[in-house]
Amino acid sequence: MRAVDGVSLSISRGESFGLVGESGCGKSTLGKLLLRMLEPTAGRVSYQGSDLGLLSEGDMKGLRPKLQPIFQDADGSLDPRYTVYRLLAEPLQIQGMERRKIGGMIQDLLGRVNLGTELLERHPHELSGGQRQRIGLVRALAMKPDFIVADEPAASLDLSVQAQVLDLLNSVRERDGAGLLYVSHNLRMVRLMTQRLAIMYLGKFMETGDTESFFTKPMHPYSQMLVSSLLSLDPAKRRARKNMITGEPPDPSDAPGGCRFHPRCPYRKPLCLHEEPGLKDVGNSTKVACHLV
Ligand SMILES: Nc1ncnc2c1ncn2[C@@H]1O[C@H](COP(=O)(O)OP(=O)(O)OP(=O)(O)O)[C@@H](O)[C@H]1O
Ligand code: SF4
Ligand SMILES: [Mg+2]
Question: What pLDDT sits at residue 162?
Fold first, then answer.
């Protein structure tokens, strides 16, 4: 099975790129490939011009702090033997921060995600899921990363904390110039948080382009369904319901031939069943993979 197949993207400093698609379409796999947490079977990931696949383990270790994951489930990224204090002090020590400043900085980091200093002596298993996630987030940001993969970074948080976390990510992008891959099912968040995006379906990009143009004029039939589903939540726009996305995505290990979206596409033609459309440039910095566009 190819969880991610034939995708290409670039993310600049200070830019936020959204990755959208149904569960199992390959979003997290792509995020992990970009951070070299997974090795691609083919293809290349480069960071500031150097091919990550060609770096020695030592060089890659030096780069790691600059490439940070923020996952919904922070369990795996926090060493269970460390206290919260140690988890947060470590990245600051690595950066050579003076000892006497570390305590104040940690207090500041916790405040930014609405957590108190009473957590400092606890271990990860003594925190709630949302607390763990926020510790994972501030720890990642304390590394002063150049590039962040934020995979559903706010999904398990209360609304008020969600807003704080997203503000924090935005400020790291704007102030420190970090690039961001923002993975989410939540189209509203993607619209707020990103400048460009890609719509993924069974491992491939169906449409890529500027975020605002996507929401005002989605081009691919799948994109149109996603945007209609969003509008259908608005009672004034119930008419959009008729174009809503229906059916389950097929099993990724048995992707349909031709256009992989054809079993769910209301516009499919005989050609769509046996010929796979490539991503075509349709102007306005948008690319679409559909025979009709
Ligand atoms: N370690 C693995 N071994 C085998 N298959 C895997 C592995 N990790 C992911 N997959 C499969 O690869 C596909 C893509 O998974 P991925 O986690 O990238 O999806 P996703 O888009 O992030 O989904 P979600 O929105 O549910 O997080 C899925 O079919 C998944 O079952
Ligand atoms: S290529 Fe055909 S089946 Fe695929 S999205 Fe376009 S019209 Fe639908
Ligand atoms: Mg995922």
Answer: 86
What number is the average pLDDT over the span 121-137? 90
Quote the pTM value. Answer: 0.91
Residue spans per domain, the chain:
10-194, 208-293
Note the ligand closest to the C-alpha atom of 186.
1
Q: Which atom of ligand 2 is nearest to the CA of 220?
A: 5
**Residue found by looking up tokens 């008729």 in the block:** 242
Residue 258 Cβ inside 6 Å of ligand 1? The answer reads no
Does the pLDDT of residue 233 top 70, yes or no? no
3-state secondary structure of 279: coil
Whether 273 and 257 have beta carbons less than 8 Å apart is answered as yes
Instruction: Using a CB cutoff of 5 Å, list residues around ligand 3, an ion.
Output: 28
CB 1 within 8 A of CB 252: yes
Task: Give the mutation target among 265, 274, 293 for probing the ligand 2 site: most ligand atoms within 8 A of CB.
Answer: 265
- 48 class by beta-carbon count within 10 Å (0-12 exposed, 13-18 middle, 19+ buried): exposed
Nearest CA to ligand 2 atom 1: 290
For 39-72, how does the pLDDT look when each residue is reduced to its tens digit (9 = 90+)?
Answer: 899 999 999 988 998 999 899 888 988 999 998 7
State if residue 24 touches ligand 1 by the CB under 6 angstroms criterion: yes
Q: What is the CATH number of domain 10-194?
A: 3.40.50.300
